[in-house]
Fold this protein.
Amino acid sequence: MKTSKLKVEYDYDFEVFAIISSAKAYKLAWELNKTLHLHLKKAEDLNYQFIKEGRILITNYVHKTEYNCLRLLKNKSCEFYDTTKPYLLPELKEYDYLVQMTGEVPVMDSQLLEEKIREVYLIEYVQRINIENLKSKENLIF
């Protein structure tokens, strides 16, 4: 019997910034809200069930408007089961958090967003990530 594989190509029309910070997620969200004039709110944790890798739960804070969405995601899972890679993006395991900006009209210019994120005293380092270079970029599609 002949088998066929379905190949799906996604449109990665979002920006991602990786952050190193030892702060708790709620405290970082609070400081980002103050600095960026946002309303990041705790949303339901993202539950990923991988076929071979087990399950992870990712802490998720969301600022959503009619035209855009900005998320603060913890890169390391708060709970994980039967997995050796408890990260949302395993190739970026040295980063603690991810900020994802999506939408028709961005919250702000990506260069300005990066500069504003750098102003937050709880953040040690921030780096804009090229989505095309990530192996696990599908984990960022919601």
Residues 70 and 101 are 5 Å apart (CA to CA). Residues 14-140 form a domain with the TATA-Binding Protein fold (CATH 3.30.310).
